[in-house]
Specification:
This protein is of the alpha+beta class. The protein contains four helices and eight strands. It has a two-stranded antiparallel ribbon. Strands 2-7 form a two-stranded antiparallel ribbon. A hairpin with a 2-residue loop joins strand 4 and strand 5. It is flat. This is Retrotransposon protein. It comes from Panagrellus redivivus.
Length: 195
């Protein structure tokens, strides 16, 4: 009797599963691609909703509470765009992986690693925090940090700074625990800054 093969868990990374000495049947490839296609459709809808929301709140400007709503919609738009890019890239990788006659060298499940982030500190450039403010009006800035690994995309809470004369933020610090599991022993951390 052949050993039972574990099912591909819908929340696991497809590629992590395939590279841990487990066989993925052709049906699982199709299921994985179908699931990602559904996620892509959902994120495209989220992007459209966020754009409509941004336009709505911009028409009602002049109130800090309304500004916060617009910033939240901008953050959701950014997160959805990143998720959409991640899902599309993963679809391409799965198609490539499926067509390979020889797959990548398998990695033992016991050797997968975990990456935990407890604090993120971003030092702002000097041009940002020494900028003159001739009209003495407060400048309002918001930051969000988005991290992703495989299909997992996580965003921090919005971080706000209000720039007034004589008060300039030189850095922002975010104290949030973020954990990525099932990473290979050798992985890269890439940074990208968006405005």
């Amino acid at each position: 009797m052949a050993p039972c093969r574990p099912a591909l868990h819908s929340f696991d990374s497809f590629l992590s599963f395939e590279t841990t000495m487990e066989h993925v049947a052709e049906g699982s490839f199709r299921d994985g691609l179908r699931r990602l296609a559904n996620k892509i459709t959902a994120e495209e809808a989220h992007i459209n909703e966020a754009r409509v929301s941004i336009l709505y709140w911009r028409r009602k400007e002049g109130n800090n509470k309304l500004l916060h709503h617009e910033l939240s919609a901008q953050a959701l738009l950014l997160i959805s765009q990143i998720r959409l890019d991640v899902y599309r890239e993963l679809v391409t990788r799965i198609h490539t992986f499926y067509r390979m006659s020889v797959g990548p060298h398998p990695v033992s499940k016991a050797m997968l690693s975990c990456f935990k982030v407890n604090t993120i500190t971003v030092n702002l450039c000097k041009n940002y925090y020494t900028r003159n403010n001739p009209d003495n009006s407060g400048k309002y800035y918001a930051f969000v940090i988005v991290l992703s690994s495989h299909e997992k995309v996580i965003a921090t809470e919005l971080q706000h700074t209000v720039e007034a004369r004589g008060m300039h933020a030189k850095r922002i610090r975010i104290d949030e625990e973020i954990v990525f599991n099932n990473l290979p022993l050798t992985f890269q951390i890439n940074w990208k800054f968006l405005r």
